Amino acid sequence: LQGVGSERRVTMGTPDVSSFEPDVAVSGDRFAITWYERLADGRHQVQLALFDRNAELLKQSVISDPGRDGRIPVLVALDSGYFIAWVDSDFSAASNNERRQVVGLRLDSDINGVGQAQVLAQASATTLNLNAASQNDRIWLVFNAEFETGASEVYLVSVAADAVASQRLSADDNHSSTYPDIAIRQELAALS
């Protein structure tokens, strides 16, 4: 493989700001990238940027609520835009074991929010990864959380236009199950 252009810097990190866990999704002749940044005050915020086919920046914005702590974003392309999800918590709870939430937001093709972000599932301080796949405008999310269980377990969330469903996939056996992933091809899904 050979690059078709010069390297482009997406984040403008400074000594006070660090960037983590980028994700990318392609829709038509444009693509979006999401990541999260750790700010000088310790808070995290989810960023989102839209680019044209030549990697020229069209738009960039903070997606998570600036007054809260947003981490671990994932992004998938839909038929008419994108869907982004991330782990959200109250900033004051970010440094302890308070509950966190997985929230999601549908975006149009210009990465504008369609409605408001909504809570999709409960997460926890042990939620260290979030993965997503989509098919026919249905979004599937997998993550691990220690929510009403003895250890961190794997959860699957299905997001449709009119419904959200969540279920625990791994047994509550006091043994952590972590770092799940998901892939969908045709009518089959693979979870690891």
Describe it.
This protein is mostly beta strands and 192 residues long. Helix content is 0%, strand content 54%. It contains no helices and 14 strands. The protein has strands at residues 18-27, 30-38, 44-52, 57-62, 68-78, 81-90, 100-107, 118-123, 130-135, 138-145, 153-159, 164-168, 182-185, 188-191.
- Strand count: 14
**SS-derived structural category:** mainly beta
Average pLDDT, rounded to a whole number, is: 87
Widest sheet: strand ordering: 1-2-3-4
* Beta content: over 45%
Helices, by number, come to 0
- State the separation between the terminal residues, measured CA to CA: 28 Å
The sequence of SSEs as H and E is EEEEEEEEEEEEEE
The helix fraction, in percent, is under 10%
| Largest pleated sheet | 4 strands, antiparallel
Q: Poorly predicted ranges (pLDDT <50, ≥5 residues)?
A: none
Q: Which geometry do the CA atoms define?
A: globular
* Computed Rg: 17 Å
